[in-house]
Specification:
Blueprint (H helix, E strand, L loop, with lengths): L1 H12 L5 H12 L7 H9 L3 H8 L9 E5 L9 H16 L6 H4 L1 E5 L5 H14 L4 E3 L6 H11 L3 E5 L8 E8 L9 H10 L9 H6 L3 E3 L3 H13 L14
Parallel strand pairs: 2-3, 2-4, 3-6
Antiparallel strand pairs: 1-5, 4-5
Helix pairs in contact: 1-2, 2-4, 5-7, 5-9
Length: 249
Amino acid sequence: MADKLQQIDTWVQTQKLSPEAAKNIKRWLTESVFAAFLSEIHALMDNSNLGELEDAFRTRIEFGTGGIRGKMGPGPNRINLRTIGEAAQGLAQYILQSGISDAASRGVVIAHDTRNNSDVFAKQTAAIFAGNGIVARLFNGHRATPALSFALRQTGAISGVVISASHNPPSDNGFKAYWADGGQVVPPHDKNIINQVNAVTTLKQIDFQKGVNKGLIQTIDANMDTDYHQCLVDLSLSSERDLNIVYTP
């Protein structure tokens, strides 16, 4: 490890790496909470991938109005288990401090798309909500965002999360926060959630299976899909069903 830290200092001295990026790289190399990312960081350093190191570590990914999204990889300016975890922890803290007495039992609904790691990030998000004592309801597979909005309102949940990066490149992923009305968070919720995310230092995460056993992590009933599809049929302005459809994700 000493040689890696020395290499970072050399890059800073020769102005190949900013002091801000160097500070964050050292933190991710030495603090135990980031141990899972060591091999990826070592690989970037061994290949002298200074452009990636600078971009991934110089700053922190911003939690905007709807959440976070960006390129996956190690570092505070990337989408990974840590930054997704911080977003989930911040939202959990806001829910618990919202003043709504039954917020934890009303819980959250979590959906994810088919992007790489979306299912992994969704399970981690559920484990963090459960670790904060908030019921997490998870779909049994990928779902479109409107299905999340529908399920959120049907279950009476206080909030929801979609793991997706929408139209971004395949290298990206993200975390989108929703509120009880089924829409993405808007003022004053957005700013307050951002403040909570920025203040996160510790992730209160429970083992996923333990959360299931305690009833804090639940699978959404399959009837939800049937109800959703029926709702769409009822909203249709036409009785025509014999349609040819071209679909592309």
